[in-house]
From TrEMBL:
Protein name, entry field: PrsW family intramembrane metalloprotease
Keywords carried by this UniProt record: Hydrolase, Membrane, Metalloprotease, Protease, Transmembrane, Transmembrane helix
Domain of life: Bacteria
MF (Gene Ontology): metallopeptidase activity
Lineage: Bacteria, Bacillati, Actinomycetota, Actinomycetes, Mycobacteriales
Sections of the chain in a coiled coil: none
Residue ranges crossing the lipid bilayer per the database entry: 5-22, 28-48, 214-233
Pfam family, one: PrsW-protease
Amino acid sequence: MKYLYYLLTLGALGTTILHYAREPFLPASVLTAVIFGAVVVSLTLFFLRRRPGIAHGMVWGFAVSGLAVEINTNMTHLLARAGLDWLGAAGYAPLNEEVLKFLGVVLICTCVIRPRSWLDYVFVGVAVGIGFTVGENATAFARMTVDNLDSDTAGALGAGVIRLASNPLSHSLFTGLSAYGLSQKQPVRWLIAAIAVHVTKNLFPSLSAAFDDAIWPLLAGMVVVVALWVATIRGIIVLRRKAATEPPVPAHA
């Protein structure tokens, strides 16, 4: 199983590298992506340095990020054929992304580490979410700079502000939920919950695009973003408290 994990990681990483090679990066969007990734990865490695499987989690999350975008792009065509293109990212991204990330948690917690408690599962999920965020935002910075914001430096900065305001830790929240379910031997139930929360986040921006004259999707989307920030901050506090009371790792471990 460990060899399967490494094989899948390399395959996903190769797909992601090819994906980024085709993205319309400008110097400013490359710099923004590199700075964002360096800061987020460094902080994660520092704060979670005593947890097992963190580096593996971030590598897996990054490795499947490009693969997820490629799958999402193909899913847009299927939604259009079904007449559901108004759903936008809410119609495909949550399912594809959460399953790919959850697969990494399963493999890492089965093949790479020996989790001692539910915290180890959740922290691996957090790391997978961080790695995914780094990759996904690199794509977002590139596309938003070129396509939507119509400038170079100002466009990249604007894209960064938009992505940061929409909660860059949300992927860690989603994957942390499914990882917790895995630790409780209820993986399907909690994976569905993670997908549902992800759908809720993506739904109202999609509805804002579909109903561009309506204000209610924008207001509802803002409420959802605030709620996700509250849930994320609350989750960080709970995890820190639980980790502080956890028994120390045995000397022979």
